[in-house]
Design goal:
globular, 47% helix, 6-stranded mixed β-sheet, alpha/beta, Nucleotidyltransferase, domain 5
């Protein structure tokens, strides 16, 4: 039947910025999907405790005023999201996140910031299985031209993204995109979730090595591209 026909958990965060070590959670969503059908959803709005920059508001539409009036404390939201994700992983259910290194690293940084147990602490092992359509697509269609952001890759695979940069919409699209990639690439569909997780570690490391080589060849001899997946190097194992 294949993992892409079974229960998948779409996950996405919208945040105050693009640096996972410094950015804060603004909204989060966890969407249950089976065979591209939504079975359930959980959504969170946080008061990040810091001003939300204008460029971030322009992306996701959440203002300081709304976050302060309607949002739950940041620590409470981070803890709740981590608890939900952990429960799925403990049941062996894959979590799907587009560019998973960003969302999982940011969540880990938030947990550390608030003195909460990390994902690894909660699980007793590394978070797995994770399915990252960004990493998979970049490996199986390495030479395709064009952008690789969520909107562009959804168009490539015919997945409807109802509202880009809405956490729930992005989480659902990520799960549906994982299914669409598996449908197009039977070799991906044939892998079990655990083996697919291991392959993505390898694929991401290879991409990072190639990109680092490219940057150094373009005149930046000190360029370093972290090849750790699904948590960036400074967030893996023992945390930040």
């Amino acid at each position: 039947m294949g993992w892409h026909r079974e229960l998948l958990i779409g996950f996405d965060l919208e945040t105050t910025g693009t640096d996972p070590a410094q950015a804060r959670i603004v909204t989060g969503a966890v969407i249950e999907v089976r065979a591209r059908q939504v079975l359930g959803r959980r959504e969170w709005l946080a008061d990040p405790g810091v001003p939300i920059p204008g460029d971030a508001v322009a992306v996701h539409g959440i203002t300081d005023e709304r976050a302060a009036a309607e949002g739950r404390p940041a620590a409470e939201v981070a803890d709740a999201i981590a608890g939900v994700l952990t429960s799925y992983w403990q049941s062996g259910v894959p979590v799907v996140a587009y560019n998973a290194t960003f969302d999982l690293s940011l969540l880990t940084a938030e947990l550390h910031r608030h003195g909460l147990p990390s994902l690894r602490d909660r699980l007793g092992t590394e978070p797995a299985p994770v399915i990252d359509p960004y990493t998979i697509d970049r490996s199986v269609e390495r030479y395709r031209k064009g952008k690789r952001n969520l909107e562009a890759v959804c168009r490539e695979y015919g997945v409807v993204l109802s509202a880009a940069h809405d956490a729930a919409a992005d989480a659902q699209a990520a799960a549906e995109l994982a299914c669409a990639i598996a449908d197009r690439h039977p070799k991906v569909a044939a892998l079990g979730p655990a083996e697919l997780h291991r392959r993505q570690i390898e694929w991401y490391a290879q991409w990072a090595a190639d990109f680092q080589k490219f940057l150094r060849g373009k005149g930046d001899p000190a360029a370093v591209v972290d090849g750790t997946w699904p948590l960036r190097g400074e967030f893996s194992a023992t945390g930040v």
